[in-house]
Write a structure and sequence with these properties.
Shape: rod-shaped
Helix content: 40-55%
CATH superfamily of the largest domain: Winged helix-like DNA-binding domain superfamily/Winged helix DNA-binding domain
Structural class: mainly alpha
CATH architecture of the largest domain: Orthogonal Bundle
Strand order of the largest sheet: 1-3-2
Order of helices and strands: HHHHEHHEE
Strand content: 5-15%
Number of domains: 2
CATH class of the largest domain: Mainly Alpha
Length: about 140
């Protein structure tokens, strides 16, 4: 039986280390890798294990941050068409925030389709910065 605090701490640490080693010896390699990397693939980790861990883990929903998925030219053209149709329905024009709200888009999705619409003259604009108002243009589709 330990007599002082130092001996008590050493005895508990030794017991913990022995228990931990026993648990590690009884676990499979895949379990150890998954627990030590939290399911992420790292250097030296086999791809099959990473894929299995990713498939088993539930998909987390992204919050407000994070990257947008890559959009094809067709996706962007579709958004431009929606913006042009919305602007035709609103001849007095709309600001980018209003367009975004009415179409249910993320603010990060707006610059590229608006720039495409302006470039193709499907959309025109008046004003600067947040005071910019967009109108339906007279360009070709």
């Amino acid at each position: 039986m330990p007599t002082n605090l130092h001996d008590t701490i050493n005895a508990l640490a030794s017991e913990f280390a022995h228990s931990l080693l026993a648990a590690l010896r009884g676990a499979s390699l895949e379990e150890i890798i998954t627990e030590t990397t939290h399911g992420k693939r790292g250097p030296g980790r086999p791809r099959a294990v990473a894929v299995a861990a990713a498939a088993a883990a539930p998909r987390a929903r992204r919050g407000k941050g994070g990257r947008l998925r890559r959009r094809s030219a067709t996706d962007i053209a579709g958004v431009v068409a929606k913006i042009v149709a919305l602007l035709h329905a609103n001849p007095k024009g709309l600001r980018a925030e209003q367009i975004r709200a009415k179409l249910g888009l993320d603010s990060r999705e707006m610059p590229r389709p608006l720039a495409e619409g302006l470039r193709k003259k499907l959309v025109s604009k008046k004003g600067r910065k947040r005071a910019t108002t967009y109108f339906a243009g007279k360009g070709k589709k």
